[in-house]
Specification:
Elements (H helix, E strand, L loop, with lengths): L1 H47 L2 H5 L3 E10 L23 E7 L4 E10 L3 E10 L2 E6 L4 E3 L5 H9 L3 H9 L6 E8 L2 E9 L5 E7 L5 E10 L3 E15 L2 E11 L2 E13 L15 E3 L7 E6 L2 E5 L4 E5 L4 E4 L5 H14 L5 E5 L11 H6 L3 E4 L1 H11 L9 H4 L5 E4 L3 E5 L4 E9 L2 E9 L4 E4 L15 H13 L5 E4 L5 E2 H14 L1
Helix pairs in contact: 1-4
């Protein structure tokens, strides 16, 4: 018995010693990875101008312009995906990073698809974050915190990104040797204060930062890499900074920008980061769906993306599933409360733009038939097969093929008590678009062509003008309008938007 006890003690001691040894080995491996990553980062700091020069930066201002080729927008989808999809926008950007004050300012001017002009200033200052919409004269406040938004914006450009990584030494890790544009790269990573893990690629010859990568879960494309590359490095005072910046989504170019000027230490006034007077304030829309009864068996789901659902005798029909699969799951739960026991048999997706298809996977998982346009069908089928290992959703856990029915011109759902008329139109906003009309309720449901803001000037574009023409052409007797974006409205809101558009032009 004594011998057995002695053997047991010996085994425990051996196991304990082995545990210490393994722990030391792991610690050594982590330390080695961290030290090696720090060496690469130090070489990158030296290549850009040195730590002292970087730390002396009070603020940096850039003027940029170029093209945006968002494959999730435009007139037709870019599938199969290509490296260089056609441009849809031509943004002009002013970007400022107040390093000393930890404030950010980004102003973008463009004309979005459909003809609507935009001029937006996005600002973080202290604990406040807001966007100023110049055309519509309103202020909007994001759901995300100012600290999270600021962290992402300070990662945008090399001189601030490198300092952020330098100040997070405990998270630095060596990732290995890679390749970018045929050049050998030293690859390291770090975790930012908001939890985002960023891979940094440094040219092994010049030491310059050439690319950053972040793993992301796209609701349509699935698990993808968001990448930003830097080139055309030029001297700016004592620093060397890139004048060409390219953003990629899963390898496809999304934005390609050329810098016309970079200026340092201009000491911007506090007024640049202040909320302007006389602008209407729009509170953040929480990502939680709220059900509102519109008529017997007709309901709106209001939130960041609005939907409508109709409870027919034997099933439920839903109009639109945007924003995200998580939001769609919450919407489905709300529908089930209103119509327990009835299947959600149909989902109508108005058009192929990715943000409007970002919740379809949740409905596919339920076996719902998707009614949509031929071009949207290709995107839905692609989305249904995308991998979501990073953040599994309902379809990941219950894979099945989508059931998609396409329509042309007109389709009607009618059980004698309820009627929904679908019309496929061609719009300046997208090649194929579906609008829904409920004649009993004199209700129009539409996407993107008319956004009705809670306050401020109602925006419009060529697509808004076309919507008004289509309503008249189809002879729809509309009293209420529910847009996917914004509040519920009336024909008066459409008329006001058209008047604003006429005045703006």
């Amino acid at each position: 018995m004594k011998l057995i006890y002695q053997l047991a003690v010996a085994l425990v001691l051996i196991s304990f010693a082995s545990g210490i040894s393994n722990s030391q080995q792991k610690k050594s491996a982590i330390e080695e990875s961290s030290f090696r990553a720090r060496e690469v980062l130090m070489a990158g700091i030296k290549a850009i101008g040195g730590l002292e020069a970087l730390q002396k930066i009070a603020d940096v201002t850039r003027e940029l312009s170029g093209t945006r080729a968002d494959e999730g927008q435009g007139m037709v989808p870019v599938l199969p995906r290509v490296v260089n999809p056609p441009a849809t926008n031509h943004p002009k950007i002013k970007s400022l990073r107040d390093v000393r004050g930890q404030r950010t300012f980004d102003e973008t001017e463009d004309v979005i698809f459909g003809g609507q002009p935009i001029k937006v200033r996005q600002i973080t200052s202290g604990t406040t974050a807001f966007s100023v919409f110049e055309v519509t004269k309103n202020l909007r406040f994001p759901v995300a915190s100012a600290s999270a938004l600021r962290a992402g914006r300070f990662r945008r450009y090399p001189e601030t990104l490198i300092l952020v990584a330098w100040n997070r030494p405990e998270t630095l890790r060596w990732q290995g040797v890679g390749d970018f544009d045929g050049r050998a790269q030293n690859v390291i990573s770090f975790a930012d204060v908001d939890g985002t893990e960023v891979a940094l690629y440094f040219d092994s010859t010049t030491g310059l930062l050439t690319k950053t990568e972040v793993l992301s879960d796209d609701q349509v494309l699935g698990d993808i890499i968001l990448g930003t590359s830097y080139s055309d490095w030029r001297p700016v005072e004592k620093l060397t900074l890139p004048f060409h910046i390219t953003d990629r989504v899963g390898g496809a170019v999304q934005q390609d920008l050329q810098t016309s000027s970079i200026t340092l230490n201009t000491h911007p006034p506090d007024s640049l980061f202040a909320m302007p007077e006389g602008y209407a304030k729009i509170d953040p829309v929480q990502p939680t769906p709220t059900v509102k009864k519109l008529a017997d068996d007709v309901y709106a789901i209001l939130g960041p993306y609005n939907s409508v659902f109709v409870v027919f005798k034997d099933y439920v029909l839903v109009l639109e599933a945007g924003l995200s699969n998580r939001y769609a799951q919450a919407s489905i739960a709300e529908i089930k409360k209103v119509a327990p026991g009835k299947p959600i048999r149909y989902l109508v997706s108005t058009h192929f733009h990715f943000d409007h298809l970002s919740g379809v996977r949740s409905y596919i998982a339920k076996g719902t038939t998707i009614v949509t346009t031929p071009t949207a069908k290709t995107v839905i089928e692609y989305a249904s097969g995308a991998s979501h290992a990073l953040r599994p959703d309902a379809l990941s856990l219950n894979p099945k093929a989508p059931i998609v029915e396409t329509m042309k011109d007109k389709r009607v759902f009618d059980d004698g008590a309820h009627r929904v008329e679908l019309y496929q139109i061609s719009s300046p906003h997208v090649g194929e678009m579906i609008i829904a009309y409920l004649p009993n309720e004199k209700l129009l449901f539409e996407a993107d062509m008319l956004d009705i803001h809670e306050a401020g000037v109602q925006p419009a574009g060529n697509d808004t003008v076309d919507l008004a023409k289509q309503v008249k052409k189809l002879g729809l007797n509309v009293e209420r309008i529910i847009p996917v974006h914004g509040r519920m409205g009336t024909m008066a809101d459409l008329e006001q938007a058209l008047a604003n558009w006429s005045a703006y032009k």
